[in-house]
Amino acid sequence: MTSRTRLWVLLISTPVIVFAIIGGYLGQVMAKDDTYQHLRVFEDVVSLVLNNYVEEVDVKKAMRGAMNGLADNLDSDSGYLPANVASAYESNAAPGPTDIGLELSRQYYLRVISVRENSPAAKAGIRSGDFIRAIDKRSTKDISTYEGDRLLHGQPGSKVSLLVIRGNAADPHEVDLTRERSTAADQAGGGRARQDRRAAVRDRPARRDARRSR
Predict the structure, then answer these.
(1) Which residues does residue 128 pair with via DSSP β-bridges, in sequence order?
(2) What secondary structure, in 3-state letters, does 136-159 show?
(3) Given this model, what pLDDT does residue 116 score?
(4) How do residues 35-72 score in pLDDT, each as one tens digit?
(5) Separation of CA 158 from chain center
(6) Statement: the pTM of the whole predicted model exceeds 0.70
(7) Is 3 helix (H, G, I), strand (E, B) or coil?
(8) Residue 214, SS3?
């Protein structure tokens, strides 16, 4: 390649390289700006609620609702863990040794995705697709699958009450179950293993000093 040819190649390729570098940088900046734009919108919404809602707002409850909504919109296995539940998760605290044989997902409430054969839940007629609206009178609307699973575990022979929805949401029925240990045969015959892909993010206490005088 002659010197003149090399010069032309250099002159042509240099702008291409520069544009590629600038394009990549601008893409990163725009992605960050897009994220910040969403955060600014969220901040505006929080400010409007705190300053204009007709009653005093429980900031902690409102923030938990926002984080629940964010996690729920990722996928059915994602969820926000409150501080006490996150502490149990981080410490690897074992749940109770017995359960009722359900594997859960989230779809507004907790939803049954599999029932272990010969388990208390199977014997009671609970099946895949049923919704668990409450566990021991506690609504499942704002709890994660991890938290729901822990609530279903307990000591051998202990009771747990479920409010189950099947078909008609206006006609839930209550089911009382006794927790039992599962056998190896039961575990092999029903349910499916699910890989633990949980990650914990510790949130800071919500500040009330963002509220402006009305």
Answers:
(1) none
(2) CCEECCCCCHHHHHHHHCECCCCE
(3) 95
(4) 677 778 888 888 888 888 888 888 888 888 888 777 77
(5) 28
(6) no
(7) helix
(8) coil
Q: How deeply is 187 buried, as exposed, middle or buried, from its count of CB atoms within 10 A (0-12, 13-18, 19+)?
A: middle
Instruction: Indicate if the alpha-carbon torsion angle 88, 89, 92, 94 is positive or negative.
Output: positive
Instruction: State the alpha helices, DSSP H only, in the chain.
Output: 3-52, 59-72, 83-90, 120-123, 145-152, 184-189
CA dist 57 → 44, 61, 64, 211 (Å):
15, 8, 13, 10
Cα(82)–Cα(84) distance, integer angstroms: 6
* Closest of 59, 14, 73 to residue 203, by C-alpha: 59
CA dist 122 and 52 (Å) reads 49
**Alpha-carbon dihedral sign for residues 121, 124, 128, 129:** negative
Compute CA 113 distance to the chain's CA centroid, rounded to the nearest angstrom: 16
Q: Low-confidence residues of the chain, pLDDT below 70?
A: 1-33, 35, 76, 184-214
